[in-house]
Structure formats: structure tokens, C-alpha cells
Amino acid sequence: MDVFAEYLAKIDNPVHRTTVEEVLAWVMQEFPQLEPKIAWNQPMFTDHGTYIIGFSVAKGHMAVAPEKAGMDHFAEVLKQSGVDHTKLLIRMKWTSPVDYGLLRQLIGYNITDKADCTTFWRA
């Protein structure tokens, strides 16, 4: 978790900081093969040098960015769940519980779908 310490220290709201810390620790525990890193001033996880998922903090939510292909793949799931999202990210509101089931699906999909990917982003 040391890789994220500086990022976490900059989150002023202690509840938001704790939530982000818990999510990042969960990803590390559930997917130990992923490499945690900070890039573009946000925490993210990669697998064999390719992007899997990233997180960022906003006033009203934690943004989860699984890449557009992941968003497209789970479009119906996102619509059915009613989770707030755009074409590129999911907004997990601070006032709602973290949907770890959805995170597991998004991360698992990207790991499998990008298993042979040789670039950071999908082409």
C-alpha cells in the first residue's frame, strides 16, 4: 500500500480517504497479480504492463475507470444496477456502499480480455 500513501494523504475527507484505502487494499488482496501504481496522478492497477483499472476522487464520488471496452461490455449491467456512469467511468457515490461485486466483474473482464494485450491501452 506504500505506493498509494502519498495519494491517500492528499484526500482531505477522512471518510473518503478510508473508503479509497479500503478499495485499493481489496483490489490488492483479490487480484495479487496486479501491479499497483500511480500514473496521471491517480491510483491504478496494471497487468503485464497493460492498464486494468484506475480510481480517482471527486467531491461527490469515487470514479472507477475500467477503460471504454469494459464500460461497453457491462453497459447493460450498469444500466440495470442504476449506478451513475458515463461512457468512460463509474461514479461510486460516497453515500452508497462500494459495489465490490461489480468491481470484481470489471477487473476480471479486463484481465481476461487483455491477457494478450501488448500495449498499455487497448488499440
Tell me about this structure.
- It is built from 5 helices and 6 strands; from the N terminus they run H-H-E-E-E-E-H-H-E-E-H.
- The protein has 123 residues and is of the alpha+beta class.
- Strands 1-2-3-4-6-5 form a 6-stranded antiparallel β-sheet.
- It is globular.
Query: Order of strands in the sheet with the most strands?
Result: 1-2-3-4-6-5
User: What is the average of the pLDDT values?
Assistant: 95
Proportion of helical residues: 25-40%
How would you characterize the largest beta sheet? 6 strands, antiparallel
N-to-C span: 30 Å
Oligomeric state of the chains present here = single chain
> Proportion of β residues?
15-25%
What is the compact description of this entry?
By secondary structure, the chain is of the alpha+beta class. The protein is 40% helix and 24% strand.
Please describe the topology of this protein:
Elements lengths: L4 H5 L4 H17 L4 E5 L2 E6 L2 E8 L3 E5 L2 H6 L1 H7 L2 E2 L4 E4 L6 H14 L10
Antiparallel strand pairs: 1-2, 2-3, 3-4, 4-6, 5-6
Keywords:
alpha+beta; single chain; 5 helices; globular; 123 residues
